[in-house]
Design goal:
By secondary structure, the chain is α/β, with parallel strands linked by helices. It contains 13 helices and 19 strands. The strands form 4 sheets. It has a 10-stranded mixed β-sheet, with helices on both faces. Strands 12, 13, 15, 16 and 17 form a 5-stranded mixed β-sheet that branches. The two termini are 18 Å apart. It binds guanosine-5'-diphosphate, 6-O-phosphoryl inosine monophosphate and magnesium ion.
Length: 424
């Protein structure tokens, strides 16, 4: 390894959690670098399912230190509830650490997120309403409150006064809501969260670099995905952070030269939750089949995910943006019963063939996919553990996908369980 990034190459829910958990067996540390509890990462181990939002997916490996990096936005109530849920289920959470520089999501961020969405009406983004955007906005406006601020009551109260004096004006004057009292909120956070959060607060930069300097493997776990990136995604239908590889550098405090492997996780098809363009989106029986078989309902919000065929134009773009060294393909088994399977290799836009993702988003809205159609394998793959046992049509699909994406495939997942994968 020693430094490996696992990230999403589509619009999220590719199975980042599953592969992070799997690769964490060889890592001394798993670091989340962006996003917050808008993420929903599902791990299935020995038939038991764990849905994680904030705690890094390395937590099920007792030797691995799960670190929440400086780039993450942390709701302290959610973090403590998630750790309690894990602990109640027998998971050791004593090694979890959170960067003192991570920013807090507080109840007014969530309220503002919901109000902004309501205000946008038909133009709404379909956010998770977890307060992600407003918390990152406060960070950029220099109104944010960092985890370390909780350690100094005077500073914490002062910062909460400043931050809320701004937020309250928006709540009351723009949205006609009641203001929040900064001292009441400070009392609540300090009483209910500080005792649990204090032992977790750490200098994550020193933790990560000490591990790298000792030549230990460190895994950086992306949340969301390349096309939800605030700079590179389908703006404004994006999240408010950088889930691309560069985000691991800023969100965990490492330079690019440390990174050896950048694994892009891609579903064998595509899903998207929330609004925004989606060239290969399906509104037919094939799409319904993907949703039914793939159980494509949000881990986090329960919303039906929009389905579509895998899009190699997007994957080529993701390969460029992230310097992908390899792809890990998930949910191949979901296509087991399809007579034929498709890969989008380019778009027709205004009568012209296009093979690079257009920078002008109006063109993405107009893009008609050009498909390579291949025969399905019509075989249950969920028990296949060796590439030699893959049906030839499944191999042909994977080889065509790697060729089209221009990135080699190194891992293939054939079911939700930790053991359901093969090296490719
Ligand atoms: P993440 O957000 O990228 O970690 O992905 P999610 O956990 O939100 O969504 C992926 C879903 O697919 C989860 O329910 C996983 O348990 C499940 N999953 C992961 N890999 C596979 C696979 O290869 N086959 C099937 N059928 N399910 C999978
Ligand atoms: P994981 O890590 C899928 C989507 C939301 C919405 C947009 C903005 O599980 O892959 P936000 O609440 O972040 O401001 O919402 O981003 N979104 C996700 N979609 N998987 C996720 O995370 C997502 N996190 C945010 O649906 O369209
Ligand atoms: Mg998810």
């Amino acid at each position: 390894m020693p430094a490996t990034i696992v990230l999403g190459t589509q619009w999220g829910d590719e199975g980042k959690g599953k592969f992070t958990d799997l690769l964490a067996a060889d890592a001394s540390m798993v670091v989340r670098f962006q996003g917050g509890h808008n993420a929903g990462h599902t791990l299935v181990v020995d038939g038991e399912s764990f849905a994680l939002q904030l705690v890094p997916s390395g937590v099920l490996n007792p030797e691995t230190i799960p670190v929440i990096g400086n780039g993450v936005v942390v709701d302290p109530f959610v973090l403590l509830a998630e750790m309690k849920m894990l602990s109640d289920r027998g998971v050791d959470v004593s090694k979890v650490r959170v960067s003192g520089n991570a920013h807090l999501i507080l109840p007014y961020h969530q309220q503002l997120d919901a109000l902004h969405e309501r205000h946008l009406g038909d133009a709404k983004l379909g956010t998770t309403k977890r307060g992600i955007g407003p918390a990152y906005a406060d960070k950029s406006m220099r109104l944010g409150i960092r985890v370390q601020d909780m350690l100094d009551e005077k500073i914490f109260r002062e910062k909460l006064h400043t931050s809320l004096s701004h937020a309250n004006k928006i709540l009351t004057k723009v949205f006609n809501r009641l203001p929040m009292d900064p001292d009441d909120l400070a009392d609540k956070v300090l009483a209910e969260c500080l005792p649990g959060i204090k032992p977790l607060i750490a200098d994550s930069i020193d933790l990560v670099h000490s591990a790298l300097e000792a030549d230990q493997n460190v895994l950086f776990e992306g949340a969301q995905a390349t096309f939800l990136d605030i700079d590179h995604g389908t703006y404004p239908f994006v999240t408010s952070s950088n889930p691309t590889a560069g985000g691991a550098c800023t969100g965990a405090g490492i330079g690019p030269k440390h990174i050896d492997r950048i694994i892009g996780i891609a579903k064998a098809y595509v899903t998207r939750v929330g609004a925004g363009p989606f060239p290969t989106e399906l509104f037919d029986e094939d799409g319904d089949k993907m949703v039914d078989i793939g159980r494509e309902y949000g881990t986090n919000t329960g919303r039906r995910r929009r389905p579509g065929w895998v899009d190699a134009v997007m994957l080529r773009h993701a390969a460029r943006l992230n310097s992908l060294t390899e792809l890990a393909i998930t949910k191949l088994d979901v296509l087991d019963t399809f007579d034929t399977v498709k890969i989008c290799t380019g778009y027709m836009i205004d009568g012209e063939k296009v093979s690079v993702l257009p920078y002008h988003q109006s063109e993405i809205h107009k893009a008609e996919p050009i498909y390579l159609e291949l025969p399905g394998w019509k075989t249950d793959l969920t028990e296949v553990k060796d590439v030699a046992d893959l049906p030839v049509n499944a191999k042909n699909f994977l080889d065509a996908l790697a060729e089209q994406a221009r990135v080699p495939i190194s891992l293939v997942s054939t079911g939700p369980g930790r053991k359901q994968f093969l090296h490719y």
